[in-house]
Amino acid sequence: MPKTPHPRRHSNRLRTVAATSAALMLAGLAASGTAAAAAPSDTTTPIKHVVVVFQENVSFDHYFGTYPNAANKPGETPFHAAPGTPTINGLTGALRSDNPNGRNPARMAPNQALACDQDHDYKAEQLAANHGAMDGFIANTQKNTCAAPAYGANDPGLVLNYYDGNTVTGLWNYAQHYAMNDNSYNTTFGPSTPGALNLVSGQTHGAMAHATGNGGDGHVVTTDSYGALGVDPATGVGTVINDPDPFYDKCSNPKNDTIEMTGKNIGDRLNDKAVSWGWFQGGFGDCTAKSPVGEHTVGQQSPATVTDYSPHHEPFQYYKSTANPQHTPPASVAEVGHDGPANHNYDLNYLDQSIDSGNLPAVSFVKAKSAQDGHAGYSDPLDEQRFLVNLVNKVQQSKDWASTAIVINYDDSDGWYDHQLAPVVNHSQSAQDALSSTGECGTGVPTLGGYQLRCGYGPRLPLLVISPYSKVNSVDSTLTDQTSVLRFIEDNWQTGRIGDSSFDALAGPLNGMFDFARPAATPLLLDPATGAVPAPTAGPADLQVQVSSPEFVAPGQVVSTTLTITNHGPGTATAVSTGLLLPVGSTVTDAAGGTLFGDLDVLAPIDLAPGQQRVVTITSTAPGNPGLRAAIGYAFSPTADPNWFDNVGGAVVVVR
Predict the structure, then answer these.
(1) What sign does the dihedral 614-615-619-625 (CA atoms) show?
(2) Which of 408, 440, 453, 536 has its CA 20 to 30 A from that of 592?
(3) Domain 7-44+533-655 carries which CATH code?
(4) Closest Cα partner for 358 from 392, 390, 393, 398?
(5) What is the helix (H) or strand (E) element at residue 259, kind and residue range?
(6) What 8-state DSSP symbol labels residue 470?
(7) What is the rounded CA–CA span in Å between residue 269 and residue 52?
């Protein structure tokens, strides 16, 4: 280790670099001040951007049943859990060796990624749960008659099977570095459309059927028993438990009746608050575009193709207020997230453009094209992984990452086995219900709004949060469901609830997956092909810094600024010094100690091995004059050389 000079030797150089950094930041803020001032920025948490990635048809046990233990067979992408990784409520040894379904769950290898689609109807899933015994999956949701190259034909226990970290490597790595929940459920039983509607409204009642070929806005009550069930003859309104296409969508199948939803959704609430938002979906810009099935599988490439866009996966197209019936593109990238011809519904490529232009909406809902959405039968976990990793990598390398939360969740279980019965929080009594007894789902709980066919919670689903503010290698067991994501958005932007007996009133919080007081999560750039953490290459230390500081403070308020310093290697950082422009009277908290020189803090040198991280917290007092933009500048050196600063940056705090 080279000789470390006294911290005072760095002070002038550090002051200059930090001041330059802060000046550049203030200049940048001033240049964009008008636009920034016009947009609402007040949130109840440090999260200013939520990216909800809504994937398809996976139960929790199907992807995470044996987490964090992977088989690591030769030739497969390895996964090794970090020491201290928490346990989950997964497939125990007893469930894998003496399962109540009469056959035992089996591991599916990476070369079995493309598999048969299972039965995931509202009633079939209740029958699979069999009054809570969880032993009716083979009889009620299993489908094992698909054709090669898909795996599963004639596998007598297919529906029970699961993947591990050698196939869903990316998701397991995200769970290692961020937070996941092992007690999260489908809001109700059933397939994709109810899940999508619950995500954005918590409500599957309020559906009105339109006759085949009806092109107007007239409310046509049909005898269709697929789109809207339990229809009130007086109002023509019923409940959705299947996958009907949306009425307000030119891409909907013209041979089938469609439905519209007559209630409100989170898009309406965000519009009321002038908060930017958008739904981004693969294929939205071209209803005829198709992609190959199993493109990135291991020996399962299929000659089949699948249409990129699926109308019944797009919830906002069911509501007149938030639909883009003609799939009109935005007038410009600047429109994305705001009112305009596209009415907040976009092709997926506009998300990339928005991130690249620094125009990421406050709330973004993201749906992959069909071949990458994870839905068994026409998608698979390896193609899904490509999509997820590319998206997360892009967001983590954007200017908005420091204030972003990415939520990965799913629309339904596809009927795949999960051993955990959900608590029933909403009762239903109909011919389609069978969880508790024939015609009954749930006992001793109310029927919200008196609306039948909304029994829930349904099957358990994966839920992950990726953010600088997410807990690290953490498993939260708070009871949550799809509307917990909705509720987080409502609470963060103070939109109010959806109303009309929405499940959002019951939803558990996501707070157990965050640590807003001590953010310590850092970016994790994975390999999209494997989901693995790329191996380091030879070279010097690579320091990375994340800064967390409040955006607005009151005069005289104590300000807490957190710097998370990470050495991404592969070399060792033998000395790290920070220069911080802060008001006089600041104090520094760090295990290494530090010395203050007026408005400049210089940390005592510390050692950072490759992969090691240090969190530094500085407290200061905000200046007393409102309107001042107080700059916090910093500079870091990975060696004892006072003239080499590997990372320079800062933050701005506005006094008001």
Answers:
(1) positive
(2) 536
(3) 2.60.40.3670
(4) 398
(5) strand 258-261
(6) B
(7) 17
Report the pLDDT averaged over residues 502-509.
98
CA 222 to chain centre: 37
Mean pLDDT of 431-441: 96
- A 10 A CB-CB count for 108 gives 20
Is-cis flag, bond preceding 457, omega within 30? yes
Tokens of 174: 């995200």
- Residue 604 sits at φ, ψ, to 5 deg, of -65, 145
Query: Residue 248 is encoded by which pair of tokens?
Result: 């307000």
Q: Which two tokens stand for residue 593?
A: 């100690």
Q: Which tokens is 434 given?
A: 């069978």
pLDDT for 283 beyond 80: yes
CATH for the 49-55+165-513 domain, from 3.40.1350, 2.120.10, 3.30.43, 3.40.720: 3.40.720
For range 431-452, the mean pLDDT = 95
pLDDT band at 221 (very low <50, low <70, confident <90, very high): very low
Rounded distance between C-alpha atoms, residue 572 and residue 100, angstroms = 52
Task: Say if CB 356 and CB 363 are below 8 A apart.
Answer: no
Closest CA to 445 of 461, 462, 422, 477: 422
Q: Say whether pLDDT at 19 is over 90.
A: no
CB 330 within 8 Å of CB 343: no
Residue 48 has pLDDT above 90, yes or no: yes
| Cis, peptide link before residue 570, omega less than 30° from 0 | yes
Higher pLDDT, 454 or 40: 454
Please report, for the chain, the start and end positions of each structural domain, with discontinuous segments joined by +: 7-44+533-655, 49-55+165-513
Please check whether residue 82 is in contact with residue 122, taking contact to mean a CB–CB distance below 8 angstroms.
no
569: left (phi > 0), else alpha (psi -120 to 50), else beta? left
What residue type is assigned to position 593 of the chain? G
User: Is residue 155 predicted with pLDDT exceeding 50?
Assistant: yes
147: left (phi over 0), alpha (psi -120 to 50) or beta: beta
Instruction: Report the pLDDT averaged over residues 214-218.
Output: 45
**CA angle centred on 607, ends 605 and 610, rounded to 5°:** 145
pLDDT of residue 30: 34
C-alpha–C-alpha distance, residues 293 and 311, integer Å: 19
pLDDT band at residue 622, thresholds of 50, 70 and 90? low
* Strands ordered across the beta sheet of 647-655: 552-553, 647-655, 629-636
The CA distance from 649 to 17, in Å, is 9
Residue 298: count other Cβ atoms within 10 Å of its Cβ.
17
Strands 580-581 and 600-603: antiparallel
